[in-house]
Amino acid sequence: MQCSDRLGFPKTDPARWRLYSDELGATQWKYLTSDKELDENPQSFYVKYILQNMTPEELDQLVRETNSNIDESRSQSFNTAVKGGRFLKKFQEPSGIFPMQYKGPMFMTIGYIVVNYISNNEIEDSTKIELIRYLVNTAHPVDGGWGLHEVDKSTCFGTSLGYISLRLLGVPADNPVCVKARKTLHSFGGAINNPHWGKAWLSVLNLFNWDGVNPAPAELWLTPYKYNPIHPGKWWVHTRAIYQPLSYLCAIKYQGPETKLIKEIRSEIFIKDFDSIQWSKHRNDVCGVDLYYPHTTVLDIANFAMVQYNKYIRPKWLVKYANKKVYELIKKEMFNTGGLCIAPVSYAFNACVVLIEEGADSELFKNMLRDFKDVLFHGPQGMTVMGTNGGQVWDASFVVQYFFMSGLAELDEFEDLIIRSFKFLLRSQFTTDCIDGSFRDKRTGAFPYSTKTQGYTVSDCTAEGIKALIMVSQHPKYAEKVKGLIDEQLLFKGIDVLLSLQNLGNFHYGSFATYEKIRATPLLEKINPAEVFGNIMVEYPYVECTDSAVLGLTFFTKYYDYRHEEIQFSISKAIDYICGAQNPDGSWYGCWGVCFTYAGMFALEALSTVKRSYNDDPVVRKGCDFFASRQMPSGGWGESMKSSETHTYVDSERPLVVQTAWALIGLILGKYPNKQIIDNGIKFLIAQQQPNGEWVSEGIEGVFNHSCAIEYPNYRFAFPIKALGLYDRMCKGTL
Ligand code: LAN
């Protein structure tokens, strides 16, 4: 059955979708077509709920269940947390994960579409329909274009990718959605003004010419790692993962098939006749609205030199040799990540390389097409490719910890939830190291952000994961039940990895970055070719990652003696870093959540673990005062994503649940003395809870690279529960 959605676009039947998750947390959506399958596979609560497929009776029943047997002797704040916990519990998969549509960035889906298109693989109708629907539903209401992320203004990059995606998915050029988007694209000067990645995708599709794309030299991989200060192995993991296949594709100037549809699109996306475009003149043309990080003169000179080198000097054998090396590295990346690669952008570019090297019928390529579905996620607006294959480990470790910190873990009704997530976390710890020569550090014992298969250590995910495991295994109510499940040697290895990630060299002493230590100078940013993102070339110190490291390490030392001295040293250097990173107004700039509120919460919690509080510590005092000064008249807090872009605190239009929880956690753990301010915030959280226990999603919780919004749908449960529970304990004097 196909229903009709906005603007007459078809919609699939929500009752036929199922979400499957395996033991290691990989999720895939399937659209069931036979009635037998439908009967045999009842829809999970999560799917029913988010696809809005619940009957009014079921919705009433949900409210009843959430509110039944509430212990009236407990405080209102605690009971609000309980109700939130009851709702969240229903989202949990048998594997222990909490699924989520990790959406926001608008430049991921193109990769999925391109890889299928150039390999002549038909995307299933149900997926196609929902991919189209997502694009239609997220088009800018005024101009019909798309931006870098879902709440962005329209840009040339976003609009080109959105438009081309719709066309490749089968939407005709004269459809009003396409007509409107095309007009906007033309107002940006047409697709010629795309930033680097846009130009690269268009070239792969044969909608652009590689002469108009700044080069990415594969030869850099042949230089000696030890002596070359700008060796790509020293770049940030994501940037090197993307530029690896890109350098391959650009070296051979790969172009997909020139089909009738491609010829049509060529005539639609430029404002000039395609054949008359002098491509090499447009290498540096980028639409003004897209430009977040303009070229430096150094980059322009380097690009010019490389173009001359490619034209006059670059021998064919060297291209072949360099590409062979790059392909070996891609295969290593695939081996280390169970074929998943670090994230969807590099995955799609790598899949193009695998297609070229192995062919469309090869096992390797077919597996890539199959596993690509791990990052496709369905939701109320349709289906999209997510920022990663989920955030399973990160969310599970927060939920586990916060159920303990709020006191919910004491209740029998949450025991199963905790043990399931605990077991998922145990299964998610790395048990092997990466293959030699892949420029990766030791990872055994560490944790990823999403799944074990994805295989990339993240510093804060490791710290939070370790903390969650210890919390369960040391708690009197759970210790017996999970006895013997933790492998302590593996836990110690995780601590080894965490300690090894601290920056103790020339750069940002005491801090933690994301995936690795800082390996090269930030001066490399001068050759950042991406144009739409800042700070992507190397690792940077992140105050949130450093805070989480402190949380993990301080908690570990409560129960274990392992490497005690070194851990104490590490904590004290991390704390110095955190204090030094505070702004004069008392705030901290956060890079992964919005923005000062997110970082302030983490920093105040980290400081609280080394017993620093409002009355005796000037850093905590300033941090809390900053929060207090930002409270809105309603009692809540709300910060706009503009803060991340502009590096100054900007209020959101209205107070937000997640941000209120963050501010409250900071204030409560910092022991802020003005209880009235905290009370008002708690009242706001209580008032925002729905009768079914839920807090409604309010959009963007996270960011990356200063300019791109990304949603963390489970934060709206995890953090309010933590704030309410901590408040309850604060009032009882048991904090
Ligand atoms: C993420 C998501 C999780 C996030 C936290 C764990 C929250 C953070 O504390 C550390 C950094 C990390 C792991 C992170 C890094 C960058 C990611 C992977 C993302 C924001 C999700 C998507 C993003 C990735 C870089 C997108 C690809 C785009 C590029 C500009 C390379």
From TrEMBL:
Pfam families xref list: SQHop_cyclase_C, SQHop_cyclase_N
Subcellular localization: Endoplasmic reticulum membrane; Lipid droplet
Superkingdom as given in the UniProt entry: Eukaryota
Keyword field: Endoplasmic reticulum, Isomerase, Lipid biosynthesis, Lipid droplet, Lipid metabolism, Membrane, Repeat, Steroid biosynthesis
Protein's GO biological process: ergosterol biosynthetic process; triterpenoid biosynthetic process
EC number: 5.4.99.-
CDD domains: SQCY_1
Reaction catalysed by this enzyme: (S)-2,3-epoxysqualene = lanosterol
Pathway of action: Terpene metabolism; lanosterol biosynthesis; lanosterol from farnesyl diphosphate: step 3/3
A Gene Ontology cellular-component term: lipid droplet
Keyword Lipid biosynthesis: yes
Limits of the Squalene cyclase C-terminal domain: 393-728
GO MF term list: lanosterol synthase activity
Domain spans labelled Squalene cyclase N-terminal: 87-344
Main location group: endoplasmic reticulum
Membrane topology listed for this record: Peripheral membrane protein
UniProt cross-references to SUPFAM superfamilies, sorted A to Z: Terpenoid cyclases/Protein prenyltransferases
InterPro entries: SQ_cyclase_C, SQ_cyclase_N, Squalene_cyclase, Terpene_synthase_CS, Terpenoid_cyclase/PrenylTrfase
UniProt similarity note: Belongs to the terpene cyclase/mutase family.
Protein known as: Terpene cyclase/mutase family member
Origin species: Saccharomycopsis crataegensis
